[in-house]
Each structure stands twice: as structure tokens, then as C-alpha cells.
Amino acid sequence: MSIQNEYLSGLMDRVVARNPAEPEFHQAVREVLESLVPVVEARPEFIREGIMDCLVEPERIIKFRVPWEDEKGQIHVNRGFRVQFNSAIGPYKGGLRFHPSVYEGIIKFLGFEQIFKNSLTGLPIGGGKGGSDFDPKGKTDLEVMRFCQSFMTELFKYIGPDTDVPAGDIGVGGREIGYLFGQYKRLRNEFTGVLTGKGLTYGGSLARTEATGYGLCYFTDCMLKDAGRSFEGATVVISGSGNVAIYACEKATQLGARVVAMSDSGGYIYDRDGIDLACIKQLKEVERKRISAYLDTHPNAEYHAGCRDIWNIPCGIALPCATQNELDEQSAKALIANGCFCVAEGANMPSTPEAVHAFQSAGVLFAPAKAANAGGVATSALEMSQNSMRFYWTFQEVDEHLKKIMVDLYHNASSAAARYGAPGNLVAGANIAGFLKVGESMLAYGIV
Ligand code: NDP
Ligand code: 2IT
């Protein structure tokens, strides 16, 4: 699809030319610029004052060497990144991803998405993202600790509780945050809320672990209710079996749905009786095993190698919670043909543009990532608040805040869509509502 505005279309061409070979970044920018056409037409000052040009250019990119020694004495050199994309409405905020596929374009796409997502939470947080091409899989705890310490020995120079507050993402969970925080504290001789997703004994927030998956279901629940539907009695397919997928499964089940399939990068399991989540938690959170091991204790379930075909399983609600572009047009068509009526994105940009188009054309309720998975970063911002106050809230208090944030976010995105001529289109609504707060702030600052 082309962008129906001459200036924004030219800007998109410049983004592609200036950021060659970064298809994920181009994809994320294109979708936002497409949505913002009616906004810049109503408010030409966003173009005239250079806001749109500034929006697509990160404020700062930090790229560094991360050398570390494995248990056999062999030296490895990985690359570390932090993209500090936009601080118009608060300190840079966003996760760190450790995965072999990480390169600058992935971190730029994630950092760009984070700007609008963080704005949508209604909380004062800017957009950033970081990570490394390090693969924590198959590494010992000692090796992961050495890597994290080396990574933080460079990163600590650029972050701080009022500057930039990283958190987890793919491959970065509680263990990694512990090693990173310990090294930051040691280097700075300071105990501050510089990272979120921390352990509960050293400043972490209750409900942060659950927040992205729970928030996804709170958002989806709102969207379903608005359309006269609900989770109650629905069959749900969830891709991934990491942090987001596990707590999406937990909350969807609590809301009355039956989750029948989950996956990892090796393949997927299909359990018609409903996924035994206690088993998945034990395999993934404790033993760090492959999902195929589910069959050792659940012989009636099926395991299929390769994750793509998970979308061929009949379901009413699909929650892609693994990674970007995991759900393409063919999978979207299979879901639609099997009666799927709702897709909500737990992962960042899991649906290709063609898949999104297929869902929207078929009238499937579609919740885009930057709205639907914002509960994680919103709860990170609540962790920052608690750290600043040197106080803590109960699980129930944090969960109530999270629920309200997701409900408000849904109404904010849905009313922005209606206001700008795209009723029911939450992709447009989330991009517009997320942009407006950031764009207004940038206008207020002048040329900076
Ligand atoms: P985890 O590392 O906990 O889990 C990731 C899951 O996705 C694993 O099951 C993993 O399988 C699978 N996966 C990862 N990469 C691929 C791939 N290339 N192909 C197939 N499967 C893959 O990460 P999270 O659950 O934290 O993150 C999942 C998604 O949610 C990401 O897109 C992330 O950006 C997004 N997200 C996360 C938030 C959070 O708070 N954690 C907040 C908002 C969004 P395997 O173990 O085999 O690699
Ligand atoms: O994609 C995301 O929003 C995250 N990985 C969470 C970021 C955060 O700062 O909690």
C-alpha cells in the first residue's frame, strides 16, 4: 500500500534510502506514516515544524563491543545496541533483547514502536530499545552472568533512572535483569530504579512478570465486549511459550477460554483438553526445556515440528506472542477460514502487513501490538514510580492500575480512530493517539 500524502510518501522513501537493509524498521515506520495521513492534513504544522522528520530519526544510537569468556576459556565478541529513539514525553524506556537475530534494524523497529506504545499508556515514558546478538540458549548461568556484566560495563555510561530505563524482552528475563542490575549498582555505587523487571527482593514490582500477558487479555476483553463477544467458552491459540505467552494463557483461561496450543521456535503442541499451564511453566521458567517435552507427561497431546502451522488449528481467538512477522497472509487466511473472530498481538509486530490487511478486510477484531501489549511497559512505569517513592504496592493494587490503563488505552485508541475517519480500525487509532501526545510535546520544544 502506498502512503496517500506526498510529503509522508517522500519521507518514507528517505527513511528507506538512509536506513538500507533494515526491512523491519521500514515496515514499522510505513504503518505509522500511513495512519498519520489524516493527522498531518488536519495539522500541517507537524510537517512544517519538522516534527515528522525528527520522529523517524533516533535521538541517539549506541553500538558497542561485548567481549566475554565462556567456561572453556574461549573468547566471544558480541554486539550490543541501545537505540534512544525519542525522549519527548519522558526518559527512554524499553526492553533489551538477547537473540542471535538482533541487528541494528531490529532494535530500531522495536524502539520506534515503543515511542507510540509508551505514549498510549498515558504515563511519562519515552521510547528506546536495546539488545545484543548474544544467544542465552544453551549457556550456563556463569556464562550469562559474564555476558551481562560485560554488556552493562559499557551500557551503564548511557542510562540512569531519569535518562533511560531498560527492561526485559526476548531472551532477557529475571535472571538477566538480576546480573545487569547487580553490575550497574556496583559500577555506579548507586541503588536506583535504573532497570525494571527486577526481582521482588530488590525493587521489582509485583505483577510485572504477569503484566504483558494479563494486559493483553484485559485489552482483548474490552475489544470483545464492545463487539458483543467474550473469552468465555472460546478456543484460543497462543504462539510462543515465553513470558508474554505464559501469562496470556493464564489470564485467558481465568476469563473462561480454553487455550489449546502453544509453541517455541522448534515447534508447537496441540492439546485438545486444554494446555496444562503448570507443566509449561515448569518446563520453560524452571527447567529451560523445549516445548516438545510436554508430551513426556501429556501423551494425548500432539507435537509438530516447525511453528508456522500452529495457525491452521481452528480457534476463535488467536494471540501471537512469539516474534515479529510470525503470522503471514497465508496463516491469516487459514485462521479466517476456520472461523477466527479476534486476533490480538502480544508480540511486537507479529503479523505481516498483508496479514493485518486480510484480518481487517474480513471483519476480524484486530488489536495491534503497540496497544495490546502495552501492559508490560505500563507496569514497568509503575515499578519506576514505586522505586522513586521507595515504597511498594500490593499485587492487587498494581493489577487494578494495569486493568484501568488497558481499558483507558482501548477507549483512547478506539475514539482516535473514529475521530480521524477510521472507526473500528485500532491500528490507525493506536498510531494516531500514540503520536499526538509525542507530537504536541515536540512542537512545544521548538527545533531540538
Ligand atoms: P521470551 O524470551 O520469554 O519468549 C519468547 C518466545 O517466543 C519463546 O517461546 C521463543 O521460543 C519464541 N520465539 C522467539 N523468537 C522466535 C523466532 N524467531 N521464531 C519462533 N519463535 C520464537 O520473550 P517474551 O515473551 O518476553 O517476548 C515475546 C514477544 O513479546 C516479543 O515480540 C517481545 O518483543 C514482545 N513483548 C514482550 C514484553 C515483555 O514484557 N516481556 C512486552 C511487550 C512485548 P524459543 O524459546 O524456542 O526461542
Ligand atoms: O516491548 C516491550 O514493551 C517490552 N519488552 C517491555 C519494555 C519495558 O520497559 O518494560
What features would you describe in this structure?
There is one protein chain. This protein has 448 residues and is an alpha/beta fold. Helix content is 48%, strand content 16%. The protein contains 18 helices and twelve strands. The strands form two sheets. Strands 9-8-7-6-10-11-12 form a seven-stranded mixed β-sheet, with helices on both faces. Strands 1-2-4-3-5 form a five-stranded mixed β-sheet. α7 packs across α8. It is globular and about 60 Å long. It starts with 5 loop residues before the first helix and ends with a helix. The structure holds NADPH dihydro-nicotinamide-adenine-dinucleotide phosphate and (2Z)-2-iminopentanedioic acid.
